[in-house]
């Protein structure tokens, strides 16, 4: 409890804002693919493209957003992106075509990918090094607290048939922005950009991250993990929505809420155990668990069995995503924290490709060949393991050069 008391008020604002932000978006975004196919009569492939638009635009925007957070300061980037997000959700509520949803979801990805690296860099700035794993895990827990209740409320509001819930997200993001304005004035010194960041050029920042071999292989490894993870919000609901008993999205929403609840239940004990091992070993195990879970979905439609698969998936998710922020924080050069967090946005290529590939597989094979669909997704996800092994090997050699072995 003492560690929680030591967290800065701005840290709590980001954590609580993240919780309410994810609650409001999870009321609607997880149902977007179903809404597009059932209401607007989009094909699975078109729905996959719309879902992928958010992550797609975020790939380059995340790096640039992180660079700007180092260059001009966290405050400006965070405020522009959070108020931009409020505008996006307002437009979402009144969109009426597949093209409109594609464009607005792309803008959604732009705002989110600008905000995320800036906020994580700010959390690193205001937190002691020994407590950064704690605050990054609290942020991840906040995401899942929001996601526990969001889909359930989304079902009640009929999010698979209406865009009205997007208005709630508009209000939440607007209020979040107003609180950040107040705190940026109350703690103005913490929001000032560091003097060293003024000398950073975009080309220089890109060169530094591009030539960091450990970081590059880490990005590639996490990219394929993200590909496997992306099936939960795109291919999984689209596939099961075609099956008897799943058409209304209720069981799907229960399973997605189970995913979030499982994160809250298992995150603390799993992270405590994972801390005893190499971060890359943990990422590899997480990748394998996601693969096993995805593959098992091809063999059952029993709700209890699917629930067990989701729990297994969740443990893999925890192993991959709760430690990666702290890992990147330890790899990053101090004056380029925002840039490194932003460059991790390139790993979202996995989230871009996952719904597109999944949608294409659904269209090509059809729901009657689940093994072909999920089998391909698993094989692609497994490609991340060689990159993670390579990152682990290079980092070990670096550490051996820095700290020579004593004879």
From TrEMBL:
Residue stretches making up the Major facilitator superfamily (MFS) profile domain: 10-393
Localization per Swiss-Prot or TrEMBL: Cell membrane
Keywords from the UniProt entry: Cell membrane, Membrane, Transmembrane, Transmembrane helix, Transport
Transmembrane segments: 12-35, 47-69, 136-157, 163-182, 213-232, 252-270, 277-297, 303-328, 340-365, 371-389
Protein name per the record: MFS family permease
Pfam families referenced in this protein's UniProt entry, alphabetically: MFS_1 (PF07690)
InterPro entries linked: MFS, MFS_dom, MFS_trans_sf, Sugar_transporter_CS
PANTHER family: MULTIDRUG RESISTANCE PROTEIN MDTG, PEPTIDE PERMEASE
Organism name: Croceifilum oryzae
Entry's Gene Ontology cellular component terms: plasma membrane
Membrane topology per record: Multi-pass membrane protein
GO-annotated molecular function: transmembrane transporter activity
């Amino acid at each position: 409890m003492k560690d929680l008391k030591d967290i800065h008020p701005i840290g709590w604002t980001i954590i609580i804002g993240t919780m309410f932000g994810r609650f409001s978006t999870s009321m609607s975004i997880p149902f977007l693919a179903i809404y597009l196919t059932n209401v607007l009569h989009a094909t699975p492939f078109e729905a996959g493209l719309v879902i992928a638009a958010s992550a797609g635009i975020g790939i380059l925007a995340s790096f640039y957003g992180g660079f700007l957070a180092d260059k001009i300061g966290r405050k400006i980037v965070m405020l522009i992106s959070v108020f931009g997000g409020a505008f996006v959700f307002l437009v979402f509520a009144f969109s009426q075509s597949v093209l409109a949803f594609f464009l607005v979801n792309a803008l959604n990805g732009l705002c989110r990918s600008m905000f995320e690296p800036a906020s994580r860099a700010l959390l690193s700035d205001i937190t002691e090094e020994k407590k950064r794993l704690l605050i990054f895990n609290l942020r991840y827990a906040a995401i899942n607290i929001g996601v526990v209740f969001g889909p359930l409320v989304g079902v009640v509001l009929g999010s698979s048939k209406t865009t009205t819930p997007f208005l709630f997200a508009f209000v939440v993001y607007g209020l979040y922005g107003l609180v950040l304005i107040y705190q940026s004035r109350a703690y103005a010194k913490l929001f000032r950009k560091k003097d060293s960041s003024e000398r950073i050029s975009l080309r220089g920042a890109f060169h530094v991250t591009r030539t960091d071999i450990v970081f590059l292989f880490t990005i590639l490894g996490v990219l394929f993990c993200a590909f496997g993870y992306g099936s939960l919000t795109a291919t999984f609901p689209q596939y099961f929505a075609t099956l008897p008993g799943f058409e209304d999205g209720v069981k799907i929403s229960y399973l997605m809420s189970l995913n979030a609840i499982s994160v809250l239940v298992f995150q603390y004990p799993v992270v405590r155990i994972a801390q005893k091992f190499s971060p890359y070993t943990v990422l590899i195990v997480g990748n394998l668990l996601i693969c096993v879970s995805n593959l098992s979905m091809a063999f059952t439609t029993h709700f209890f069995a699917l629930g067990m698969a989701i729990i297994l998936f969740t443990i893999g998710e925890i192993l991959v995503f709760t430690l990666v922020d702290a890992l990147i924080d330890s790899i990053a050069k101090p004056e380029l924290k925002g840039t490194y967090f932003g460059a991790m946005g390139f790993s979202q290529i996995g989230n871009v490709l996952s719904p597109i590939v999944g949608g294409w597989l659904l269209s090509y094979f059809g729901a009657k060949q689940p093994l072909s669909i999920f089998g391909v997704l698993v094989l692609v996800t497994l490609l991340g393991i060689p990159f993670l092994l390579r990152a682990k090997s290079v980092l070990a050699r670096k550490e051996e050069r820095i700290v020579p072995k004593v004879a």
